[in-house]
Every structure is written in structure tokens, then in C-alpha cells.
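Before a colleague's protein record goes any further, I have to sign it off. Thanks in advance; the entry in question is below:
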Amino acid sequence: YLSGSQNSFDLIVVDIHGNTVRDWKGYSDVLIGALARGGMMLISNANLNLVSGWQEETGVSWFLGQLPTGWTSTVIDPPVPGIAVVRRP
């Protein structure tokens, strides 16, 4: 839905399956473009890679590491797999 929208949103909740870096490279631009100034994004499974059998699921960490200048992120963990809170100034 977000990829076809010209709207921006004050709150975006992301709970998806497919958390590899390759997956997140596809989500990144759409999510960044859809979050309104002053908005917040909540991302589940922020540390899914810490769960046995899911070590390749590092896409959220990759996404947080390439946020635009001025954006902030905090990971609430425990409990694993964690929630990332992203804020756009």
C-alpha cells in the first residue's frame, strides 16, 4: 500500500516476514518516503537475528544503520526479537 501512495503518515507500524538485508533494501525507500515529519515508525523483529535459526535476519539493523541524517532509532530489547522505534525530525 505505501509504495503506491503519495501520502505521508505520522505513524507506521512494520510487522513483516522477510527481514534479510536484501528484503529491507526493497522496503527502505518506501518507508523513509512515507513517514511524515515528526512521525514515528515501530518495527517488530528488530533483533530477530538473535533467535536461534534466524541469524540471517539482519535487515532491520541494516535499515537503522542507513537512516537519513537527523533521524533517530532506539531498539527496545528484551524481550527478543525486539521493537525498533524510529523518529523523523
In short: The first helix runs from residue 21 to 34.
